[in-house]
Amino acid sequence: MLAGGGARRLGGADKPGVRVGGRALLDRVLRACAEARTTVVVADPRPTARPVRWAREDPPGAGPVAALGAGLHHTAADTVVVLSADLPFLAADTVRRLLAALDEQGAEGALLTDADGRDQPLVAAYRTFALRRELAALGEEHGGLTGLPLRRLTAGLDLTRVPDPVASFDCDTWDDIAAARARIREHGHVLDEWISAVKDELGIDLDVDTGALLDLARDAAHGVARPAAPLTTFLVGYAAGRAGGSPEAVAEAVRKATTLANRWADETSGTDKAADKADGTAPGVAPAAGQPDVAPDATPDTRPDAG
85, 114, 279, 283 — which has fewest CB within 10 A? Predict the structure, then answer.
């Protein structure tokens, strides 16, 4: 990942550290490539959301081709994903699509194209041997890699292209930053963005069924009381964590809480006729005097702390 540019169009601001949706741009890109065996960031070291290996081109600021060459020194993988650190909408699925396109087409590189159809060589997957070949040729021809544009590198590669106007959107100016911040707050994106940010902040790497959790919160709010919604979802998370924290543990805790919320709502609305009949009373009528307030199949609690 290349994160050491000068950000001249941002007035020299620390672009990888600029926040979009509460997270640094660099951390957003790191999340998208979390499945990589090794992640190399070519830049000066800084705090990041997850551990990475740091590298630096020589001299610093020598340009993207030199930075790419420096990063390749730290990997022996057959395939590398090359990314810039200013891609607010890059997702893991995009990285998977690039890798799939590379394999399916048998090419030396697979890169995204933007909304105008332009190649984005810093949102791409490459065969490592092809990059090393072209870097060596360029270094020999020019006496080094300093200052060379990326198009000189990609011109010698057999490339396939994957159109994606959203994932290829990069933040070069403050207007771009403002547009990215506005987009993630749109109705169709804000919830997923928020959940992703919270998971990063809390160090949680878990895919959960947000639809099921929202349904549970709705049922608890409508069938019990509004404050029950956040408290219930908190307790579900706590219970799932105690049970191991797997997606299955979350799903089971959600199922149990949802069932309980539905039973509660049925009693409140008077629709739980079967339960009313079980204790021999009419709906909404208390048991007669002297009649135990338990279901017929209830048994005494014989645990040591009962009393």
Answer: 283
Could you tell me which of 144, 2, 5 has the C-alpha nearest to residue 61? 5
Nearest one of 95, 79, 97 to 87, comparing CA atoms: 95
Which region holds residue 11: left if phi is over 0, alpha if psi is between -120 and 50, else beta?
left
Listed in sequence order, the residues at least 6 apart from 25 whose beta carbon sits closer than 8 Å to its beta carbon are 15, 16, 17, 18, 19, 85, 86, 87, 88, 171
What confidence tier does 271 reach under pLDDT thresholds 50, 70, 90? low
Q: Tokens standing for 195?
A: 């959940």
Q: How far is 186 from 179, CA to CA, in rounded Å? A: 11
For 151-202, write each residue's pLDDT tens digit: 999 999 999 999 999 999 999 999 999 999 999 888 778 888 888 888 777 7
